[in-house]
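Following up on my earlier thread - several people asked me to post the actual chain instead of describing it. Fair enough. Here it is, all 92 residues.
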Amino acid sequence: MKVKLRCFGEVRTAVGSREIILEVPEQTTLHGLLRLLETDNPQISLGVFEGYGFCKRFRVLINGRDTFTLQGTDTTLVNGDIVTIFPLIVGG
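Reply from S.P.:
Thanks for posting it. Predicted structure:
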């Protein structure tokens, strides 16, 4: 199945593109997708992941829904899903 990944900030820099289409096996979870991405782009693991979850400075959406309202990294993806990763912007 195909999943679109939209990247912003340092993830976009690491991946080298704003959007990429990834071919993944059926029943792939968000965690599985991001580990596949990490295998191709090891520099991503330095900032996006914290153990099994995401670093608190990043937000991950699936089809516009925050993964906190789903099953987090255990959310199973389906063909055509759009996964968006972006850094939170903080200021003062």
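The two ends are 42 Å apart (CA to CA). That should answer part of your original question.
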